[in-house]
Design brief:
Elements lengths: L1 E6 L5 H15 L5 E8 L7 H12 L4 E3 L2 H7 L5 H13 L6 E4 L8 H6 L2 E5 L10 H10 L4 E8 L9 E8 L6 H5 L3 H28 L3 E4 L2 E4 L8 E2 L1 H10 L2 H5 L5
Parallel strand pairs: 1-2, 1-4, 2-3, 4-5, 7-10
Antiparallel strand pairs: 5-6, 6-7, 8-9
Helix pairs in contact: 1-2, 6-8, 8-9
């Protein structure tokens, strides 16, 4: 069973929805693991949204560790406060003996010491080999490069931002129906929104399917490398078909692809 640490700033409704979705899968037995700790870089009273997130965590009776990076930065004596902050984070979480840490809307870049000590995974809104940066930067670069596909991936967190080994991924074509109508008209704004819509719909399923695969030992992370069930090193586990089927089952395509142009 995976012993999971959940890292989140808890800054919006999406953070709550994702935690709920994963907890539902755990309780139904679809994910062989449990969230043993939720860590946040905010403390109660700093944000209304974060307070709602903390209330949700307490409702699940999950241990909650809050440690404000803003307050620490204000009073830190060292110039490189981030190194000291991460060391303090480690002191607060090491007793939980976590197998895996999931960055789920955690709005701080993890420092080298912390990401070397723990197996951490993070979502990036592009397929392997795709653009780096924010989701906005990713989509604009895909459009600029006239890309054939978009997607998302889960990757191991390393000191090099968005460059860690790929754990899992999904991809979808952005050519052919229904995307061609935007390409033909050179409607970049419409294309941007449509690509984002399709990518966003895959984020929760990708995170859930990745945790399911890790819990079932279909894939494993060891020494910052990813392996399949046979122990072979792989460049990511392709979940595209599984996620497309999940979306079809929810009738997502029928309801969403008919968006007005």
């Amino acid at each position: 069973m995976l012993n999971i640490g959940w890292f989140s700033t808890g800054r919006d409704e999406a953070a709550r929805q994702l935690l709920q979705a994963v907890q539902d899968e755990i309780h139904s037995g679809e994910i062989n693991g449990e969230i043993s700790l939720v860590f946040s870089n905010r403390e109660p009273g700093e944000s209304k949204e974060s307070d709602l997130f903390f209330e949700l965590v307490r409702g699940y009776e999950i241990p909650l560790v809050c440690f404000s990076h803003r307050k620490f930065k204000t009073f830190a004596k060292e110039k490189d406060w981030r190194i000291q902050y991460d060391r303090e984070v480690n002191k607060r979480i090491e007793k939980f003996a976590l197998d895996l840490c999931v960055l789920a809307g955690y709005m701080l870049v993890i420092g080298e010491e912390l990401c070397q000590k723990y197996s951490m995974i993070n979502l990036h809104p592009a397929p392997p080999g795709g653009p780096v940066g924010s989701w906005q930067e990713v989509i604009w670069e895909l459009i600029q490069n006239k890309a054939d596909k978009a997607g998302a991936m889960m990757h191991v967190v390393t000191p090099e931002l968005d460059k860690g080994p790929v754990v899992s991924y999904c991809a979808f074509p952005v050519r052919g129906k229904p995307f061609d109508r935007y390409w033909r008209r050179n409607d970049k704004d419409g294309l941007f929104k449509f690509i984002r819509h399709h990518e966003l719909a895959r984020e929760f399923p990708l995170i859930i399917s990745t945790l399911r695969a890790l819990g079932q030992n279909k894939i494993a992370i060891r020494n910052k490398k990813v392996f399949d069930a046979q122990g072979n090193s792989i460049d990511g586990y392709d979940l595209s078909d599984e996620i497309d089927q999940a979306l079809e089952k929810k009738n997502w395509n029928k309801e969403r692809i008919t968006m007005s142009p």
